[in-house]
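Category: protein sequence paired with discrete backbone structure
Discipline: computational structural biology
Format: plain text, a pair of labelled lines
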Amino acid sequence: MSIPNQNHADLVLERLTLLPQFARACNARMGHRLSPSDLDEVVQEASLTTWSSRDEFRGEGSVEAWMYGIVRISILRFLSAQRRRREREVPITEKTESPIDGERSAGTVADSGFRLRVREALRSAGTNIEEIFVGHEIDGKTFAAISEGLEMKETRVKSKYYRCIPSLKIALEKLWNDLSGV
């Protein structure tokens, strides 16, 4: 194992101009997933990383391979951050007036306040239960998406969901019996 020396750091500094070329080659190898402006950001990030870690290059392999590795990791980090940003920026539609709150025609179950009482039962089942249950059962979201939205661990969301089902079932049966006169 070689010890870092000044010659290795100088070699890294001499090759810094090759980073844009490495970035283009790596992007092409990954299927041209980055636009030219995104690629410029990656080159900037890779340059900073290379500069700050130039003393870590030990000369065990080629400096070009080491720098290509830094560029590759920078691209992967950029793509990961881009994906997370897109997921966070999904527009949340404003709640519109739903049939629960709007006017209803006479004689429907909704007239009896059943839907409103179901929502109340969900709210009384515990913290975030309404968001979890509605998100999973009605909106069709995955537990992972719900956990990200509520900033909870996915296992915690699943636990809350499955633990609320028995008590929710009892509450709903009681509601139905009260409304149907049984």
User: Anything to note?
Assistant: Helices lie at 6-14, 19-29, 36-52, 63-88, 114-124, 129-138, 143-150, 154-180. Residues 6-88 form a domain with the Rna Polymerase Sigma Factor; Chain: A fold (CATH 1.10.1740.10). Residues 123 and 130 are 6 Å apart (CA to CA). The chain has two domains: 6-88, 109-180.
